[in-house]
Description:
This protein is 47% helix and 19% strand. The chain is of the alpha/beta class. The chain has a single domain (23-168), classed as 3-Layer(aba) Sandwich (Rossmann fold), CATH 3.40.50. The protein has a six-stranded mixed β-sheet with strand order 1-3-2-4-5-6, with helices on both faces. Pfam families: TIR (PF01582).
Amino acid sequence: MASSSDSKRPFCSSSSSNSKWRYDVFLSFRGEDTRNNFTSHLYKDLDKANIKTFKDDEELRKGEEIAPELLKAIEESRIAIIVFSKTYAHSKWCLDELVKIMECQKEKGQIVYPVFYHVRPCEVRNQYGTYGEEFKKHESNADEEKKKKIEEWRTALRKAGDLSGFSLRDR
């Protein structure tokens, strides 16, 4: 079940006049890390500000593919906020979302804001630390098709890690 805040006033005047955007913001996050703390607070604040926000509330079971509705919501969002957390790269679903978001940035002019939540931008960009460990797991026993997907994930992480964003560390 996805949550969407209904917008009474547009986030930006172009938001309501431009029919290609159904949402002002798409939130990409790793549920187990941030769903019940940072992301839920961010969503509530966006909702209070009448910013129409898509937040996926479903926990993806292991092995499932990203839902077409989720890809559509990414395409229909004017802005994507990516909450990079310690285990973001553990989730193939998050990484697939990220690839789609970076495609939409390039092809549709989607605005992308990364939030580095208890990780440094260089860990994301260069895939070291917990990100490097997760990629070693993804790469173990990867066939040619999976290797291509892993390279897409790496490219998307490099591009997102290069973006100006927000870094949130312990206190």
